[in-house]
Amino acid sequence: MAERITQKGRLPQKYLLPLVNEQVKADIESKCIEGGEEITFTLMPDTADVFRSELGLAYLLDRSIDRVQWLGQGPFAGYPGRHQANRYGLWAKHKDDLYFEGNHEGIDAAFFSDKDGNGILIVGDSLNLNFEQTDRGIVLTVNAAVSGQGPKFAKTAFPGWKKGDMPVSATFRSYYIKADVMPQVMKRFFSPAAVPAPFKPFLTQYDTYLMKYNDIAAQRSANIVFIGNSITYGALHEQREQTAPPAQCARWLCQQEGIDTIYFRNCGRSGRTTYHFLPRAEDVVPAGDKTYFADVVAKTRELVKANPDLPLVFSIMLGTNDAVERKHNAHTEPEAYVRNLTVIIDSLLCLWPDAHVVLNRPIYNTSDYVTKNGSVASKKSLKMMNAYYRQFTTIVANCKAGHVHIGDAKAYKYFKKHYKTHVFEEKDARGQSYWLHPNEQGAEVLAQYWGKAILLTALPL
Predict the structure, then answer these.
(1) How far apart are CA 388 and CA 324, in angstroms?
(2) Distance from C-alpha of 147 to C-alpha of 186, rounded to nearest angstrom
(3) pLDDT single digits (tens) 250-282
(4) Residue 204, Cβ density class (10 Å: 0-12 exposed, 13-18 middle, ≥19 buried)
C-alpha cells in the first residue's frame, strides 16, 4: 500500500504493506459504475519521521499481463523535480523494457493487458501510476503522493508527504476488458499488438527486476472467527481442536505465500440454525432455545484484544440444519434465512465496522435420514439448501457494501462426488446409513475451499 524506505544492511525493508497495518491508516470506498468500479482512497501516515517515496494503493496483476499502454506523460518515468524529458501523448512499454519501471505522471488512461488484449483499464484525472516488475507479475500502484528522487543515502528535496500535511487521496475507475468485446473507442487508442519489443541493451541490470515479490511485500496476519453448525465444530473428530475445518483452514492459510500468522476461533455449534445466532434471545426459533451470538462476540473480543490491529474476518457456513424438518418447528424459509443472516452480519459489523464477512455455501449431504432428536432430512432439504445459496447475492446487497462477500460454492459438488470417502458414515434413528459430517480428510478439503475464498475476498494478495 505504501513504500516506506529505510536502510537495513543496505537493503530496503519490505514496503508493500497490507491494507490494515500500523504505519498508514487507509480508508477505501468503492462503488459499482457502468461496466466497472470507481475507487476512492485516503491514506494517512503514522509519522513524518520515516521517509516514504510513495503513498498509494497497490495491485498485483495477473502474470499473463505483460504490457501497458497509457495516455499521459511519457515515455519515461516522472517524479517531482524530474520530468522535463517527458511530454503528453500515447505511450507503450513491455514489462521487460529497460525503462518500464517507475512512477508515471499525468495519466488519464492506462491499459494493462496480455498479448491478446485481455486486461484492466485504469481511468482517472492526471493520475500517478507506478509500474514495477516482480517474479509474480506487475505491481501497479495508484499513487496519491510521490516523492522526488535524490542521492542514494540522503532525502529528496521533494518529499511526497511531510509533517503537517493532511491525508492524501485519489480517485480512479477500473474496468475489466476482454479482447473479443473491447469497446471501439478503446481500439482507437490501444492495440496490444502495437506495443514495441522491449528495449534490452544489457544482459542484466541493477534494478528491482532482480527482486522477488516476497522481498518487497510485507507478510500478512489476520484474526478469523468461524461461525457454523456441527460441520464447523468438527463433530465426530477425535481431535477436533486439530482437525476441525477451522483449525485446518488456519493451518492451510499459514502455508500460503504472503501469509504469516492466522489467529482463529471456532464458534461452530452442533444442531444449530441461523436462528440460534441472532442477537436477541426472543427471536430464536423454537422459543426458549439459547442464542449463541453473545458467545461469538465474547470469543471475537478475546481474539481482537490478544491480536489488535489485524484484519478481522468472519467465515460463516449455516443452512444445513435450517433446511431439515425439525421436531419443534418446520424448516427455515429462504426469506427468513435471508433476514436472519442479514441481522447477524449487520450486528457483527456494527461492533467491528472494518471486519469482512465471507458466506460459504452449505455442503452436500445425503438425504432421507432421521436424526435421534427427530429432525427429518429429505430431498426437499437439499433443494432448500440450494435455495439458500441462491439468496447469497441478496444478503450481500442488504449488508454493508464492500464488507460482505460470497465465498466458497465449489465444496458442495466435491462432497456430492466424494462423500463415501470424505464423510463419516452414520446411522440414523431407523438404523439406516447417512453421510453428513466430513471426516478428517474431508475437513482438510473443506478447509482449503474456505481458505481460498478468504484469500480471494477478504485477504487478497
Answers:
(1) 13
(2) 32
(3) 999 999 888 989 999 999 999 999 999 999 999
(4) exposed
